[in-house]
Amino acid sequence: xxxxxxxxxxxxxxxxxxxxxxxxxxxxxxxxxxxxxxxxxxxxxxxxxxxxxxxxxxxxxxxxxxxxxxxxxxxxxxxxxxxxxxxxxxxxxxxxxxxxxxxxxxxxxxxxxxxxxx
Length: 118
Known about the structure:
By secondary structure, this protein is mostly helical. The protein has one domain (about 1-110). Helices cover about 75% and strands about 0% of the residues. The chain is built from five helices and no strands. It starts with a helix and ends in an 8-residue tail after the last helix. The model has no long low-confidence stretch (mean pLDDT about 75).
């Protein structure tokens, strides 16, 4: 029963974090424009730059966010208990994963520097 409560609380934290990030940082700080062309469309060459589906991009994003959590979470739990581990996983996924990965991807897409062709 305790694990179900933790799961539900985690989902609530993720839902609130997602809603707050989507409503504050995306339109006010990042100012994303869905009409603007991405590098995949601007530099499409069929090798390094090519559009892909949302499911492929979700897989890359999920892999990036979930990288260290399965390793660091249990280590923190062994040393300090499960509450700090849960806070690390939930807070880390929100601040380190969503905010940092999304903003760094947006900065990378806005940078118009292309590697020189040797």
